[in-house]
Amino acid sequence: MNPPHTVMSKVPAVTLTFWIIKVAATTLGETGGDTFSMTLKLGYLVSTALFLALLIALVGAQISARRFHPLLYWATIIASTTAGTTLADFADRSLGIGYAGGSLLLLALVGGSLAIWYRSEGSVSVSSVNTPRVEAFYWATITCSQTLGTALGDWAADAGLGYGGGALLFGAALALVALAYYTTSASRVLLFWAAFILTRPLGATLGDFFDKPPAQGGLGMSRPLASLVLAAFVLACVLLLPQRAATASAPAPQR
Questions:
Q1: pTM of the predicted model, to two decimals?
Q2: Calpha distance 203→27 (Å, rounded)
Q3: Total domains, the chain
């Protein structure tokens, strides 16, 4: 039997750099989505349509790419988190589902997406994201989780925690996931998805904390300005911080 060989994934390895950019990108998704839907007064439905169209185009480019491209990957993440912001707001506020109902519905969608992915491929590890079908599962799950995170963040803030309190809550939850990673033998794949989902409400509450008026518990920053600053930070991180593709071992082809 031939020895296994390394298979390169189309997504980044999970490192400290990954989490820094992920939190910043999700915060940008919140301020960017609110900029289009509220500041520019496009509304939730039109903004959602715009960002979903952009997301579909970027996912198509990501799937067509032959290897991991940091700029393309993170542009797709930002599109998914911005679409998630406007989509969650549309469902919660325009359709009247409410934060609790929207969160439960989206949690079911995330769980269903992961279950179908696992049943089809036998794994939901990011190391296995290297075929078009797996990439489709990955980006569907990502988009559902980004939308879920927005609903959870708004729910926590609206429940009385405020934006600062919500950020502390989800930051503490992420710290517990990190503690479990370093001190237990819990599934690394499960911990990854728990952390990935929790970074979204953390970003949502941070974004709202930056741009909501002081009367609502925020700092009152301009949404477009906050979005530009965050976009510049994300771009600098993507260009300057080290990143590599995730890898997995696979059996070598028989000769």
A1: 0.89
A2: 4
A3: 1
